[in-house]
């Protein structure tokens, strides 16, 4: 019986060890890679980029002549006119016709060149959109990752104060037994311990929610347990940062700005493409064909491969005269789209500058807050230690001690919060300057 119990405990211990060992640390870089590999929006933008790339290839090939082949095989009963013999017959006849036609639009080349430019900038626009989606997903992952780490750190802080409070409760009980403290102090200290434990449970709930949001963003199995890289190196911004230099970097690197620029150029060539409908088209064509009729005495091979071959070469002209102002309406709409896209480019340049300016102000303020909250935490710690000393010397009261401890806890949590907020701000600055892809 003892042997069975020992075997069971050994299996249980080994099983737990396997689970712990299998729980790898998920680094921020690995999280970013997972998110980009699994994100649905990224996958959709990849499909759209492939579609515009295929359209670009189509535009290049449209510069070449078009070639079409046609043919038909049929049997006709009744009165039939045989084109080969020029006679009417009432018999049932079999016919075979086939031809290959090549045509080349030699006049309206500007139409095809505009189409080529249009598809080129559409592809560049979609490439930039794909890159921006990756950057946006990366920033979301960084945000969820840091929020989870912040909650983990807050749990450590609250756990430490729970342990301290438990020690205080035990010490208070001992002093009550020897008559140094009144009995009601135990309930005051125990109530504070329960409050701290409740606060920790609230934070654990937040921690689990943030971790689940991160796993959902990474499209990981929510049933799995993950451990994050706690000692995450912050993105350091040293020295004075010049907003004008950051603005120029953003204009060179921001994918959303490049996307709108490329879309504006695509709309410009869309106007040219629509205007090409005003121009007459002149096509050079060549047709090679042959036919067979059962009414002729010669064999199929003699008719189809030798006697009935025709070669036709010619010009085809198409002159637009009137189509109910349909072309004019399409040109007008294309011009409006182009003007609107130019306005979008101007607006995003202003937005980028304002975003950078606001973020730099936020970073500057948060740097000062770190100094103030470090001082606040240190001062609250000293006040708490002095108040605790006074209390156990019989010169203080539990209410003052509780207030001092709460101030110390609040200051510690606020310092932890501003540290992670500043870390996120620095990643956010990478995003706003179009450089967050350097993390991958």
From TrEMBL:
InterPro entries: OMP_efflux, TolC-like. SUPFAM superfamilies: Outer membrane efflux proteins (OEP) (SSF56954). It comes from the Bacteria. One of its GO terms (cellular component) is efflux pump complex. Keywords: Cell outer membrane, Lipoprotein, Membrane, Signal, Transmembrane, Transmembrane beta strand, Transport. It is found in: Cell outer membrane. Residues 1-22 form the signal peptide. One of its GO terms (molecular function) is porin activity. PANTHER family: OUTER MEMBRANE PROTEIN TOLC. Belongs to the outer membrane factor (OMF) (TC 1.B.17) family. This is Putative outer membrane lipoprotein.
């Amino acid at each position: 019986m003892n042997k069975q119990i020992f075997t069971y405990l050994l299996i249980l211990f080994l099983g737990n060890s396997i689970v712990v060992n299998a729980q790898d640390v998920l680094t921020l870089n690995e999280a970013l890679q997972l998110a980009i590999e699994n994100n649905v929006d990224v996958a959709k933008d990849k499909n759209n980029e492939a579609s515009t790339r295929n359209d670009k290839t189509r535009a290049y090939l449209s510069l070449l002549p078009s070639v079409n082949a046609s043919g038909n095989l049929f049997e006709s009963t009744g009165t039939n006119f045989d084109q080969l013999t020029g006679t009417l017959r009432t018999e049932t006849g079999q016919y075979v016709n086939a031809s290959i036609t090549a045509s080349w639009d030699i006049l309206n080349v500007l139409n095809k060149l505009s189409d080529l430019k249009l598809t080129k900038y559409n592809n560049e626009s979609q490439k930039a959109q794909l890159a921006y989606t990756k950057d946006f997903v990366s920033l979301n992952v960084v945000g969820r990752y840091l929020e989870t780490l912040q909650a983990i750190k807050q749990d450590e802080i609250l756990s430490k104060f729970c342990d301290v409070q438990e020690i205080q409760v035990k010490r208070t009980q001992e002093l009550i037994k020897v008559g140094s403290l009144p009995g009601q102090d135990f309930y005051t200290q125990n109530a504070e311990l329960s409050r701290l434990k409740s606060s920790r449970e609230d934070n654990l709930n937040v921690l689990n929610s943030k971790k689940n949001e991160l796993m959902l963003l990474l499209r990981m199995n929510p049933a799995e347990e993950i451990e994050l890289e706690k000692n995450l190196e912050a993105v350091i911004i040293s020295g004075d940062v010049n907003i004008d230099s950051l603005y120029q970097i953003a204009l060179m690197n921001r994918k959303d700005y490049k996307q709108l620029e490329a879309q504006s150029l695509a709309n410009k060539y869309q106007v040219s493409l629509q205007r090409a409908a005003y121009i007459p088209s002149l096509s050079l064509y060549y047709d090679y064909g042959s036919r067979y009729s059962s009414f002729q005495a010669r064999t199929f091979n003699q008719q189809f491969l030798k006697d009935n071959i025709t070669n036709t070469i010619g010009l085809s002209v198409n002159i637009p005269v009137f189509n109910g102002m349909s072309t004019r309406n399409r040109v007008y709409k294309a011009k409006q789209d182009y003007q609107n896209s130019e306005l979008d480019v101007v607006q995003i340049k202003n937005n980028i500058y304002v975003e950078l300016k606001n973020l730099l102000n936020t970073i500057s303020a948060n740097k000062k807050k770190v100094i103030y909250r470090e001082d606040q935490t240190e001062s609250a710690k000293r006040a708490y230690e002095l108040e605790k000393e006074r209390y156990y010397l019989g010169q203080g009261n539990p209410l003052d001690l509780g207030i001092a401890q709460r101030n110390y806890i609040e200051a510690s949590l606020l310092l932890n919060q501003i540290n992670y907020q500043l870390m996120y701000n620095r990643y956010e600055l990478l995003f706003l300057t179009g450089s967050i892809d350097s993390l991958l």
